[in-house]
Design a protein that fits this description.
Length: 226
């Protein structure tokens, strides 16, 4: 079954034109994010349907919609100059922990600065140590681009998700209700009534939204602890 037919079957309460708008908007914005983030090189904006139909064990809260989920390998973020602030913080802490482990294994003093105090041989061994760690590490975080219909409005959202490897929107069910996996500084949210949507071109809307989306995703503002 084609994507469009599957989309129509899963979201029958959304008009054809609105579904087309959602699909194009999410596709274009997701591609803009991929083009902007070097760590997403080679990633494709694969669209996923958010069903608006109930099924066994699933009760939708909206009429459904579409989203693109972009996984970002954490190992690809090391050395990247332009990352979201919360990812920067995590990468720095991870590098510090890697260095502590290396110094412990190499019997170097605690707090040893491999870059300033280490010789060429020590630095090369540290780089090899990192390569071995990175080769077996598939930890990832996510960027999500989503569009859905609810109560006569179409909603658009991009967000950064730091529920590593899982990408859950809420961690209450995982027993961590105080952890926010989608930090607010990195979000972009818009909505339109169905009458407002008439005459809007998804490509034009995407071009207008993209700068704000990218600015928010690159925010260095205060985020939530990882």
């Amino acid at each position: 079954m084609s994507f469009d037919k599957d989309f129509a079957r899963c979201c029958p309460y959304i008009d054809d034109g609105v579904r087309d708008f959602m699909k194009e908007l999410v596709q274009i914005v997701a591609e803009a994010v991929i083009d902007d983030f070097g760590v997403l090189d080679g990633c494709e904006a694969q669209l996923e349907i958010v069903s608006g139909m109930p099924s066994s064990g699933y009760m939708p809260l909206t009429d459904g919609g579409v989203e693109a989920v972009l996984p970002v390998l954490l190992t690809a973020c090391h050395g990247e100059p332009s990352l979201p602030g919360i990812i920067d913080e995590y990468v720095i802490r991870e590098e510090q922990e890697f260095l502590r482990q290396f110094c412990r294994d190499a019997k170097l003093p605690e707090g040893f600065d491999i870059y300033a105090e280490g010789n060429e041989e020590q630095r090369n061994k540290f780089y090899e140590y990192l390569e071995d760690l990175f080769e077996n590490d598939d930890t990832c975080w996510f960027i999500k681009v989503r569009c859905w219909q609810s109560h006569g409005r179409v909603h658009f959202l991009t967000m950064l998700n730091v529920d590593f490897n899982y990408g859950r929107d809420s961690l209450v069910s995982a027993g961590m209700p105080d952890v926010e996996p989608n930090p607010l500084p990195y979000r972009t949210e818009k909505s339109w009534s169905l009458p407002e949507l008439e005459g809007l071109d998804a490509g034009d809307v995407a071009k207008q939204l993209a700068p704000e989306v990218l600015s928010n995703l690159h925010s260095k503002g205060e985020g939530n602890e990882v």
